[in-house]
Specification:
heterodimer; A: mainly alpha; 14 helices; globular; B: mainly alpha; Four Helix Bundle (Hemerythrin (Met), subunit A); 2 domains; 7 helices; 0% strand
Chain lengths: 341, 171
């Protein structure tokens, strides 16, 4: 690998720049393709058409608009924490991308604890959201922050438990190992397709997507930012650049969960018929991962634009009474089958 | 080892400073956030000790769950912005005695056991370290050697959960 030949600090700087690219590119693509265009088509309208051909520069226009806006602090807000909160949210998302492998050598960090680390750092964003809600000195913001915290804690459990099924089957927490075992696996002796875990862990895939939807606080799980009740929850008082940071955080974490789902269930950078560890996979791998991310993100946003909002008690009931028992049953069945076969 | 020593120095200083600010700050939410810094420094110390799994558990359990529940509880009940006057109570003496006792016991145990011993210089590769101290080794140890203590702790946690529900629902 080229990066390994460089001194530690140089390769670290290159990796940091690449992580930023890996966060911002999919986030921007999601906003344009899904939020601007797909949602518009589903609602029988065109969406942005003015900025650039077919509205393709709308995103740049939005960023420019946000940069010009005044950075408003509410009078009674806790200024330091109010300013800090968006950075906690974005930082936790950036940390998730660090472990996602894009090819046999194209990874940022090859951690022994891989997926466990990703789930741990993604849970840090709750602190940023709670702090944002509290520091705004606004009742709507505080209610939004509290709802978000309750929801994120509740749905973290089915997400972790759904991943356990995959980990049992792969026999490793390391994401590169998980991709390897999908590429080298076989179902009842038929190994031409490998064993993308979506085939054997389809229950876990469904649970993971539902939990990811709730972790993103998107419709149908958007109680924390419910416009008709809370203005926009913990983001109510934010404007300009800091609002934009929350927005980037939201779509970048949609990308992070899509990339995790692509790695855990769809075989990561590997495609049937391609050599898993060949050198060319370092170039093709990122494209494959991005394509799979787009597929998963399409599902996530399809749900978002289709279903109406849950009530708060229904939302908690779904997590604690249905998703968690189902994921526990999935772990049991997976463990038994792992021993039997 | 110089890099590790510098990193340890920074982590130790930040955790001590944050711990002092945590007990002296006049705002409950700020105190909880200083606690995040303390716990984060401890997690980073685990990484310095090459205990990656323990570090991630520290992040997930203490920062991701326990501090979030602290914040949640504080914000639901009493979370004024700005300074709060009546955060202190009259148990400073007792707290000082307890803290000194814990410091004395921990210090005595460490000095008594290790004395002037130096840590052996390990020249093992990443793979060799992982085989003996990595996540797999931790998992194997928990589910073979320490199976019974592990299960006892799980039952204890379950009992605490049931107790909390009984206290919360008086009907």
């Amino acid at each position: 690998m080229i990066l390994a030949a460089l001194p530690y600090w140089e390769s670290t700087i290159i990796r940091v720049v690449l992580v930023l690219a890996a966060v911002l590119l999919p986030a921007g693509t999601f906003v344009y393709v899904f939020l601007f265009k797909m949602m518009s088509f589903m609602q029988s309208r065109l969406g942005p058409m003015e900025a650039g051909p077919y509205g393709s520069l709308q995103l740049l226009a939005e960023v420019g608009k946000s940069l010009q806006k005044e950075d408003i602090f509410p009078e009674r807000a806790d200024r330091t924490l109010f300013a800090l909160a968006p950075y906690i949210v974005v930082g936790s998302v950036l940390l998730v991308y660090v472990v996602i492998p894009f090819g046999p050598d194209a990874w940022f960090a090859n951690l022994d604890t891989g997926i466990f680390y990703a789930l741990a750092v993604s849970s840090l964003s709750v602190i940023g959201i709670l702090v944002a809600g509290w520091a705004s000195a606004n009742k709507y913001s505080l209610m939004g922050g509290l709802r978000a915290a309750g929801q994120l804690i509740a749905y973290e459990l089915p997400m972790v438990l759904a991943v356990v099924g995959v980990v049992i089957q792969a026999g490793s927490l390391n994401l590169i190992q998980i991709v390897n075992s999908q590429a080298n696996g076989s179902i009842f002796g038929f190994g031409a397709l490998g064993n993308p875990f979506i085939l054997t862990q389809f229950v876990a895939f469904g649970l993971f997507l539902m939990a990811a939807q709730a972790e993103l606080s998107q419709a149908p799980f958007d109680m924390p930012v419910a416009e008709s009740e809370l203005v926009s929850g913990y983001m109510t008082e934010y404007s300009g650049m800091r609002f934009l940071l929350f927005f980037i955080g939201e779509f970048a974490s949609a990308g992070a969960f899509a990339a995790l789902a692509a790695t855990l269930f769809l075989g990561g950078w590997w495609l049937p018929g391609l050599d898993l560890n060949a050198n060319y996979m370092n170039v093709i791998g990122p494209i494959v991962v991005l394509t799979k991310m787009m597929l998963v993100a399409f599902l996530i946003f399809w749900f978002r634009f289709t279903y109406p909002r849950f009530r708060e008690d229904q939302l908690q009931t779904l997590a604690w009474k249905y998703l968690i028992p189902i994921s526990l049953a999935n772990i049991m069945v997976t463990a038994v089958l792992k021993v039997v076969f | 080892m110089i890099a590790q020593n510098i990193a340890f120095g920074i982590l130790a200083a930040s955790s001590v400073l944050a711990a002092i600010r945590m007990v002296t700050t006049k705002n409950v939410v700020h105190a909880a956030l200083y606690l995040v810094v303390v716990l984060g420094s401890v997690a980073a110390n685990y990484i310095l000790l090459a205990a990656e799994f323990v570090a991630v558990v520290q992040l997930l359990v203490y920062i991701g769950a326990i501090v979030v529940l602290f914040l949640f509880g504080v914000m639901l009940t009493r979370a004024k912005l700005g300074h709060e006057g009546e955060l202190d109570n009259d148990q400073r003496g007792l707290a000082a005695v307890t803290a000194l006792l814990i410091l004395g016991i921990l210090g005595y145990v460490l000095v008594d056991y290790f004395g002037d011993d130096k840590l052996p210089q390990l020249n093992r590769t990443h793979e060799q370290l992982n085989a003996t101290r990595g996540t797999g080794a931790v998992g194997n140890a928990i589910f073979s050697t320490y199976l019974i203590p592990f299960e006892v702790v799980s039952v204890l946690l379950l009992a605490a959960l049931v107790g909390a529900i009984v206290l919360a629902r008086r009907d």
